[in-house]
TrEMBL record:
Protein's name according to its UniProt entry: ZMYM2-like/QRICH1 C-terminal domain-containing protein
InterPro entries attached to this UniProt entry: DNA_brk_join_enz, Integrase-like_cat_sf, MAVS, ZMYM2-like_C
Residues annotated as signal peptide: none
One GO molecular-function entry: DNA binding
Domain annotation ZMYM2-like/QRICH1 C-terminal: ranges: 177-326
Species assigned in the record: Macrostomum lignano
Keywords for this protein: DNA recombination, Isopeptide bond, Phosphoprotein, Ubl conjugation
C-alpha cells in the first residue's frame, strides 16, 4: 500500500514539475508535420512497387474513361458509374475488374501476356489496400470471385495463344567465360579499374550479392572484414538490415542475417582475400568516404604516383553495370550476363557441388522457395540426365573432365569450401536406388 502511495505522489510531482517548467523534456520527442508523416509512410513502399501501381492504375483509368465515354455517345455497351471511386464497394470492384481484365489491351491493341495480366491485377490489389485504404482482398474475398475467374480465364487464353513473356533473366557465368575474361585481361589486378571490377566479380560470386544497390551500400570495414579463425585468415561478409530480403519490416523482422566466409586459395591472383587486401592497400590515406568501392583514378600520372582511387564513391549504376561491361567486348556471347548472374553462379555452383537447398539458401540469403530459380542446369547436368535416362535407370559410368574452379567457392559459417585441382571425375549413376557415386581419379 505504501509503495502504491509513493508511486501516486511521484506521478503528481512530475506533473507539477512539467507544469512549472514546460520546456523540460521538450526535445525528447520529434514533432512531425502531416506531410512528413505521410512521406515516411510512402517510403515504406518500395519505389518499384509504387511505379508499377501507378502504371496499372493509369491503364485502369484509361479503360474506365473509354468505357464511360461510350454512354455519352449513345453506345449501349458503355459503362455508367454514378458513384465516386472511394464509394465503390466490393461488388462494384468485382464487376469492374472482371470487365477490365477481359478487355485490357496494349497501346497497339494487342493482348497482354499472362504474367503481365497477373501483375496488373496484383497492383490493383495494392492500390485498393494502400492508396484507397479499403479492407478488400481481391485474391480471397468471396465477393471478388468473378474478378479472379476473369483473370484466370484471360491468363489461360493468353497462354494458349502463345503470348509468352519475354525473358530478361540473367544466366549463370560458366567457368569457361570466367577463364576467357582472365586470358583477355578483362579480369586483372594490374590497374585501378580492373582491380575494382575483379573484386566486385568475386565478392558477388562468393557472397551471392545482388545488384548495384547492395554493392553501393557496402561500407569499408563494416559488412566485409578480414578475420582470423583457427589459424586461418578469412574474409567474412555479414549481411546488414538494408538488403531487399532483410529490411527489418514487420514481415521480415526476424529473418536471420547471413554470414559467409571466404578462405585463401593456392591461386594468389584469384584468391578473394588477397584481392581484397590488395584493394584496401590502394585506398587513399585518411579517406573520409565510408563506401567500400571508390572511384578509380583515370590519370596515368596519378596512377604512377601510387594514387589509384579517389576520395569519392563509385555510383550505384556504375557498379550495377560491371558484369555487362565485362561481357560487352566479347564476341559470340548469346546469354545475358548481369551482376545478378554472380548470384546465380554461386547458387548453381553449390548445387552441382552437392549442397542441400537449405544450405545454399543460407549462403544466398533466400528466405523462400525463390532459390529454385537460381539453380540452373549446365551442359554437363543435361548430359548426366540424358545418360541416366538412356541407360534405363541401370547403374552406369560417365566420365567427365571437370575444369578447375579457380576462385573460392561459397561457404557458410565455419564450413569452408575451397577449389579442387583439375581431376578426372567418374559418376556411377544407379537409377534403381536413386544414388550418384562421385569418384575422383
Amino acid at each position: 500500500m505504501e509503495d502504491d502511495l509513493d508511486l501516486v505522489l511521484r506521478y503528481f510531482e512530475s506533473k507539477e514539475s512539467a507544469a512549472t517548467n514546460p520546456a523540460a523534456g521538450s526535445d525528447r520527442f520529434a514533432t512531425l508535420s502531416t506531410d512528413e508523416i505521410q512521406g515516411k509512410l510512402d517510403a515504406a513502399i518500395p519505389p518499384n512497387t509504387r511505379r508499377k501501381e501507378l502504371w496499372a492504375v493509369r491503364i485502369f483509368d484509361q479503360w474506365f474513361e473509354q468505357r464511360h465515354n461510350r454512354i455519352l455517345h449513345g453506345d449501349t455497351t458503355g459503362l455508367l458509374v454514378l458513384k465516386e471511386r472511394h464509394e465503390w464497394n466490393a461488388c462494384d470492384w468485382n464487376y469492374l475488374l472482371k470487365m477490365f481484365i477481359l478487355e485490357v489491351r496494349k497501346v497497339d491493341g494487342t493482348k497482354y501476356n499472362a504474367t503481365t495480366l497477373r501483375d496488373i491485377f496484383s497492383m490493383m490489389q495494392h492500390y485498393l489496400q494502400y492508396t484507397l485504404k479499403k479492407e478488400l482482398n481481391l485474391w480471397k474475398d468471396a465477393a471478388c470471385r468473378d474478378a479472379r475467374m476473369a483473370l484466370d480465364a484471360a491468363m489461360k487464353e493468353a497462354t494458349r495463344e502463345g503470348l509468352v513473356p519475354g525473358t530478361n533473366a540473367s544466366s549463370p557465368i560458366p567457368a569457361t567465360l570466367e577463364e576467357e575474361w582472365w586470358q583477355k585481361g578483362r579480369l586483372a589486378t594490374t590497374s585501378p579499374k580492373l582491380l575494382l571490377f575483379t573484386l566486385v566479380f568475386y565478392l558477388g560470386k562468393q557472397f551471392a550479392l545482388r545488384g548495384g544497390t547492395e554493392l553501393h551500400g557496402l561500407r569499408y570495414s563494416c559488412e566485409i572484414q578480414l578475420q582470423h579463425e583457427d589459424g586461418q585468415e578469412l574474409l567474412v561478409y555479414c549481411e546488414n538490415r538494408a538488403t531487399k530480403t532483410t529490411n527489418a519490416g514487420i514481415k521480415r523482422r526476424f529473418v536471420p542475417l547471413k554470414t559467409v566466409k571466404a578462405s585463401h586459395t593456392a591461386d594468389h591472383d584469384r584468391c578473394l582475400p588477397c584481392i581484397y587486401k590488395l584493394y584496401v592497400d590502394r585506398r587513399p590515406e585518411n579517406c573520409t568516404v565510408q563506401n567500400l568501392f571508390l572511384a578509380w583514378m583515370r590519370s596515368d600520372a596519378s596512377i604512377q604516383q601510387g594514387r589509384w582511387y579517389q576520395n569519392a564513391p563509385v555510383g550505384r549504376h556504375s557498379l550495377d553495370g560491371i558484369v555487362r561491361e565485362l561481357t560487352a567486348p566479347l564476341t559470340g556471347v548469346t546469354e545475358r550476363y548481369t551482376n545478378q548472374s554472380l548470384r546465380k553462379t554461386c547458387a548453381s555452383t553449390l548445387h552441382r557441388a552437392g549442397f542441400a537447398r537449405e544450405d545454399i539458401a543460407r549462403v544466398t540469403g533466400h528466405s523462400s522457395t525463390a532459390i529454385e530459380r537460381y539453380i540452373q542446369f549446365d551442359v554437363q547436368d543435361h548430359v548426366k540426365v540424358s545418360h541416366a535416362l538412356q541407360s534405363g535407370g541401370q547403374s552406369s559410368s560417365l566420365s567427365i573432365d571437370t575444369e578447375p574452379e579457380r576462385s573460392v567457392e561459397a561457404m557458410e559459417q565455419s564450413n569452408v569450401v575451397t577449389a579442387n585441382p583439375a581431376k578426372k571425375m567418374r559418376l556411377n549413376i544407379n537409377g534403381n536406388t536413386n544414388t550418384v557415386e562421385i569418384v575422383f581419379e
